[in-house]
Amino acid sequence: EPAFGQSAECFCHFSEDVRLFTAYAMMNASGNGGEWRTAGMDPIRIQLRADLAGRIDTSFQAKIRAFNRSHGQILETYEAALLTSGPPDFRWSYNPKNTGEIAEIVSADSTLPSLLAEFYKKANVAQLWDEYRPLIQAENNEYKPFADKAMDDILSYCRLDSNYFYSDSRLIHFEFMPLLPYFTSMTAWVNGQVYFIVGPQEDKPDQSIFYYLLLNRVTFPLVRNDSEDVRRLAGLFDAVKSKIDMKDGNWSRLLAESFSEAMDIRLQKRLYDLDDSTVQASLMTEYKYGFILCPTIYRDLGKYESSGLSISEYFPQILKSIDYKQEVTK
Length: 330
Description:
The protein is mainly α and about 325 residues long. The protein is built from 16 helices and four strands.
């Protein structure tokens, strides 16, 4: 059990961020109507798009659209609003030493702050924020109880000390954002804090949405670059990156995330009583995304579960059991 008086809210905050609201409101104002769900957009997104109509002139809308065309990853580009000071000026305000890959957007294009500031003023986003913040916050709050449940599941599965998560000083900001397409999820590391941004979901909230995020706090410290087995497997990155969509250019990060994804699927199998075909489909999806060791790690986690050891104790055994030549052949 967590230490008395503590819960996931000690390190996981659930307050909506006006910077993200402004950015994704601007994305919608540009006319961007991308949506993954066949049944269409979230009702809040639909209403906001209607409210935005007529708030900005066609010349400024064209300006936003030109900005969109010049950036391949629109959702991730607007995510960079987190690197700013917020309204009304939206100046760049971040420390590159404890900010992740999202900072690359700054060096590639420095026009986002001025565009956000202009949009904030012209569309009277302050008034829209007052109106929409309570609606979005109410949905965000529905996820709160499940952060604790996810934490308990991971403490139990990984056989960790009950205070494990409280020893990490990095805050997690959970941001439910209905202005995004359904099923969207993004993670950004900004100024030493983690932002987990989630679009609308068809399923009701449960603890599974937090599994991967919290598991990264377990796996990343385990993957040490000076480990002989981490170095031994690093060649896999060069061997396969030209053949599949690699998730990231950093091998140790990709390895840690492969462990997180494999354990996430293990936990979801328990939670939902998934059949083998569903599990295998999930593993293959992660493999195609670049988590190349996910299927192998998933298999070896079965042995871990019956070992009685903690994940930190068993972790080296999983690494040693990975056959380099066999993985390259796959």
